[in-house]
Write a structure and sequence with these properties.
The complex is a heterodimer of chains A (228) and B (255).
Chain A (H helix, E strand, L loop, with lengths): L1 H34 L4 H14 L2 H12 L4 H8 L8 H26 L2 H9 L4 H30 L2 H7 L9 H10 L3 H25 L3 H10 L1
Chain B lengths: L1 H24 L3 E7 L3 H14 L4 E7 L1 H9 L6 E3 L3 H9 L9 E5 L2 E6 L20 E4 L5 H13 L2 H6 L1 E4 L2 H9 L5 E5 H4 L6 E6 L7 E6 L9 H9 L1 H9 L6
Helix pairs in contact in B: 2-10, 3-4
The chains are: A mainly alpha (228), B alpha/beta (255).
Chain lengths: 228, 255
C-alpha cells in the first residue's frame, strides 16, 4: 500500500504547489502582457512559452545547469543553505516551469477578451485600479484562467523527464507517480505498474470531475455580464 | 494552381515520412542491447564489425541492464544482449527469450567508490562515508541496475550498507551515477572501474570494493524469429582478438 500511497501523495503535493505557483505567476504575467502594447510582448510570450514545446530533457538540463550545486544560481543558493537538486522542491520547480505556459496562454487570451468598456465604466465610477482588476477584469477572465490552471495541474501531475533529471528518483522523497511507474516497468514489476497506472488515471478523472463543478457555467456568467 | 502545389507538397512530405518509416523498420540492421557501462567499448566494436561486414549496420542500444532485459522479454527486435550482471540475464532467460546455449561471460569488471575530483569532503574510503558532512551518495538502483546490486552486496558484506542507504541517490544506470559525481551534485558514488576511467579529470577513484559476487558480464543471442543472420558473427567478434583488444582498451579484463 505504501508503494502506492507515497508516490500518489507526493505527486499531488508537487502538482498542487506547481499549479499554485504557475497560476499566480501565469495570471500576473498574462495580465502584464495583455496590457503591454509593444511588439516585444510577443517575443516575451514566445520565450515564456518555450517549456511547452521544448523536450522535457532540455528543460531538465537547463535546470540542472542553473540550479545544480555548481550552477550559477545553485551555488549561490547553496551558500544560503538552499538545495533544490534531489529534493521535492526541485520537482516543484520542474513541474512549475512546464505547467506555467498553460496558464499564461489561457489567461492572456482571457484577459484580451475582456470588454474594455466595462473596465472604463468601473473607472468612471471611481473604483481604484486594483479594485478594477480584482472585481471586474479577473472575474470576467476567470473561466479562461481556470481552464488553463486545470491543464497546468494535469501537466504538472504527469511531469516526468525534467523531474527525473533535477529531482532524481528517491523512494518516498522525489519518486512521483510517473517515475514510480517507470521504475516498476523497468524492474518488470507489472502488477505494481498496473495499480499505479490505474491510480493515476483515477486521480485525473477525479480532478476533471471536481474541475467541472468548480467552473462557473455560461448562464451565470451571462447574468454577471448583463448586470455589469 | 495553389491547391495543386499544396497537394504536391503534402504528397512529398508524406512520401518522405513513409520512406523514413520503411527505412527504420528495415530488417537489415543488427540490434545489440548492451549494459550502459559498455557504451564506449561496444560502440567501437560495432564500428569495427561494420568495417569487416560492409552493408551491415550495427545499432546499439545502451541502458541499465534490467531495462534492456525487459525490452528483450517484451519482444523488442534485439539480436544480441550483453548484461552487466547475471541477474538481469537470468530474467530474460527465465522468460524464455534467450538462446541459453550461447550464454557466456565475456568480461570482468570492478566496483569502485568515486568522488568529485576536487574531493572537498576529503573522502578517502567507504568508512569516510559515515562522516556527518556526507549528505548524498549515488548508486545504481539495486532493483534495476547491476552496479547497484554489486554495490549493495559489497557494502552489506562489510556492514556499511545502512550508512550509505541513509544518503542514497538512486541512478537509472551507471553512467547517470558517474554524471552526478562528475557534476559534483553528490558527494560520492559507486560505479564500475571502467566508467571512472572515462572521466579521469572529473572524478577520482578512492577505493576498490571487494565484491562477494564476481563482477562478470554475460552475453547471449536472443531467441526470436527473424534474428539477424550475422548475430552469431557479432557475438563471435566480441570474443575474437580484435573484440578483446577493444574491451581491454577500455579497462575490462578477461573473465
Amino acid at each position: 500500500m505504501a508503494d502506492i500511497a507515497a508516490p500518489l501523495l507526493l505527486s499531488l503535493k508537487v502538482a498542487g504547489w506547481a499549479t499554485l505557483l504557475s497560476a499566480v505567476l501565469g495570471v500576473a504575467v498574462a495580465y502584464a502582457l495583455s496590457r503591454w502594447r509593444s511588439s516585444w510582448s510577443d517575443v516575451v510570450d514566445s520565450v515564456l512559452t518555450l517549456p511547452m514545446v521544448l523536450p522535457p530533457t532540455v528543460i531538465g538540463y537547463y535546470l540542472l545547469v542553473l540550479l545544480g550545486r555548481r550552477g550559477w544560481l545553485g551555488s549561490w543558493l547553496a551558500d544560503m543553505g538552499i538545495v533544490l537538486v534531489f529534493t521535492w522542491q526541485g520537482a516543484v520547480i520542474a513541474a512549475t516551469v512546464v505547467a506555467f505556459p498553460m496558464v499564461l496562454k489561457a489567461a492572456r487570451a482571457a484577459f484580451e477578451d475582456v470588454d474594455h468598456a466595462l473596465e472604463h465604466a468601473a473607472q468612471v465610477l471611481g473604483i481604484s485600479a486594483a479594485g478594477i482588476f480584482f472585481r471586474v477584469t479577473l472575474p470576467l477572465a476567470m473561466r479562461g484562467i481556470l481552464a488553463g490552471v486545470l491543464l497546468a495541474f494535469a501537466r504538472a501531475l504527469g511531469e516526468f523527464g525534467a523531474t527525473l533529471m533535477i529531482a532524481g528518483s528517491i523512494p518516498g522523497k522525489t519518486q512521483t507517480l510517473s517515475i514510480s511507474i517507470y521504475e516498476a516497468v523497468q524492474a518488470g514489476n507489472d502488477s505494481l505498474a498496473n495499480v499505479l497506472v490505474l491510480t493515476t488515471s483515477l486521480a485525473c478523472i477525479v480532478v476533471l470531475l471536481i474541475a467541472g463543478r468548480l467552473a462557473p457555467d455560461r448562464s451565470r456568467m451571462a447574468v454577471a455580464r448583463g448586470q455589469a | 494552381m495553389r491547391t495543386i502545389s499544396k497537394f504536391k507538397r503534402i504528397a512529398a512530405v508524406s512520401a518522405l515520412l513513409a520512406w523514413g518509416w520503411h527505412a527504420q523498420a528495415a530488417a537489415s540492421d543488427l540490434l545489440v542491447a548492451a549494459a550502459a557501462s559498455l557504451t564506449n567499448a561496444f560502440t567501437e566494436i560495432g564500428v569495427q564489425f561494420q568495417q569487416e561486414h560492409p552493408g551491415t549496420k550495427v545499432l546499439s542500444s545502451f541502458a541499465g541492464s534490467d531495462a534492456l532485459a525487459q525490452q528483450v522479454i517484451q519482444g523488442a527486435p534485439i539480436d544480441v544482449f550483453a548484461s552487466a550482471d547475471q541477474k538481469a540475464m537470468d530474467k530474460a532467460v527465465q522468460a524464455g527469450n534467450i538462446d541459453e546455449s550461447t550464454r557466456r561471460d565475456f568480461v570482468r569488471n570492478e566496483v569502485v567508490l568515486i568522488v568529485p575530483a576536487a574531493n572537498e569532503l576529503k573522502i578517502n574510503s567507504v568508512a569516510d562515508l559515515k562522516g556527518a558532512s556526507v549528505k548524498r551518495v549515488a548508486l545504481g538502483n539495486p532493483a534495476t541496475v547491476p552496479v547497484g546490486r554489486y554495490t549493495k552486496a559489497a557494502l552489506e558484506h562489510t556492514g556499511n550498507w545502512d550508512t550509505v542507504k541513509r544518503n542514497e541517490i538512486l541512478g537509472q544506470n551507471v553512467r547517470q551515477v558517474l554524471d552526478y559525481v562528475a557534476r559534483g551534485e553528490v558527494d560520492a558514488g559507486f560505479v564500475f572501474a571502467t566508467d571512472a576511467a572515462i572521466m579521469p579529470d572529473k572524478v577520482k577513484v578512492v577505493e576498490k570494493l571487494a565484491s562477494p559476487i564476481p563482477v562478470l558480464y554475460p552475453i547471449a543471442l536472443v531467441k526470436r524469429d527473424g534474428r539477424h543472420p550475422l548475430a552469431k558473427d557479432f557475438y563471435d567478434f566480441v570474443f575474437s582478438p580484435k573484440g578483446e583488444a577493444v574491451l581491454a582498451k577500455y579497462g575490462f579484463s578477461k573473465p
